[in-house]
């Protein structure tokens, strides 16, 4: 195992990076440009480290699923600090249904084979690759999506992630979603988890919103109600769900 970091080492690295960044950000002599740069660096580093937690979670589940008699999982001390994104296709999250209108009108064969959204499918919201245009796109500003998490989760936070304005080919992020509502679905009823607003802050592209609930859920209904002014379509790049299993 030489050369491979343990979960404890990765955790310590994460804490050191965050502590160092916070010390730099509070220095009074930091100018506005440097402040923006450091905030951007902070977001980038946290995003990379968050992906490490996702990979650790997948790795642990893969090991648990195999026969490893010499490993005592009760003594494992891996802590994810709520950083596993359960709305990830890599973990098994799926899109169950979509109520929206495609950006481009589908032809006969696309409708026949139910591939109306093949250019910008909703599954892209569950993937980590966020290149410009690599999003779930729908006409106007309204859509309803139901996603199934890989297992029931005690949800602590939900969030959205959009690309930076400088990465947009048109330097325009008005197609980003704005107001949205999240429900947890059960056999008996829809449980309102919250009504939220995503703002197009360039220093905070991933925005998380706290959720207060006592139950575990694996079906989420997300109702996108508006965007930031684009008259033709809305782009949703990534959905994030943090919690505990």
Automatic annotation (TrEMBL):
Annotated localization: Membrane
Domain SUN: 84-245
Gene3D superfamilies xrefs: Galactose-binding domain-like
Recorded GO MF terms: protein-membrane adaptor activity
Keywords from the UniProt entry: Membrane, Transmembrane, Transmembrane helix
Predominant localisation class: membrane
InterPro entries the UniProt entry points to: SUN1-5 (IPR045119), SUN_dom (IPR012919)
Pfam families: Sad1_UNC (PF07738)
Taxonomy, superkingdom: Eukaryota
A single cellular component GO annotation: meiotic nuclear membrane microtubule tethering complex
PANTHER family, per the entry: KLAROID PROTEIN-RELATED, SAD1/UNC-84-LIKE PROTEIN-RELATED
Protein name as it appears in the record: SUN domain-containing protein
Organism of this sequence: Glossina pallidipes
Lineage, broadest ranks: Eukaryota, Metazoa, Ecdysozoa, Arthropoda, Hexapoda
